[in-house]
Amino acid sequence: MDNEMTLSFIAISENEGLARMVMTSFIASLDPTIDELGEFKTIVSEAVTNAIIHGYDEDGEGIVTIRAKRNGQTITMTISDEGRGIPNIEQAMEPLYTSKPESERSGMGFTIMESFADHLAVWSEPQKGTAITFTKEFLPVQSNFVLGER
């Protein structure tokens, strides 16, 4: 393992941006492409937002924890909460399903995360919380620069 970190914060919406910024800094040494960076930030945003909105109902009482590991060009990250949990993971992962239709949620969070991650796993238990683990491999930096040429 090359590096790892843990970040914990109160489950309020303004901390979603903090999580995205810190995790983006964590992967900076991999020199991600613009597309890779956008996909990674989207996964982090979706997972953290789910924890805040669905895990804790935006109550500002709970804690969201992110554990990230970098091994070569691969990032493995787990975003977890100790909130209300998901009673039916299979249903929750269906495109367009939302447990909060009154909040105008799109129900596409898991679908988006799955499409951008190389691997996505969800663990949840009602009244104990949820953990979303994903891996994403970043392409190695390739230089087209040759010394002495323009």
Automatic annotation (TrEMBL):
UniProt EC number: 2.7.11.1
Annotated GO biological process: asexual sporulation; negative regulation of sporulation resulting in formation of a cellular spore; sporulation resulting in formation of a cellular spore
Coiled coil: none
SMART domains xref list: HATPase_c
Transmembrane feature ranges: none
Residues covered by the Histidine kinase/HSP90-like ATPase domain: 35-140
InterPro entries: Anti-sigma-factor_SerPK, Anti-sigma_F, HATPase_C_sf, HATPase_dom
Family annotation (SUPFAM superfamilies): ATPase domain of HSP90 chaperone/DNA topoisomerase II/histidine kinase
Annotated family: Belongs to the anti-sigma-factor family.
Name used for this protein in its record: Anti-sigma F factor
Name of the encoding gene: spoIIAB
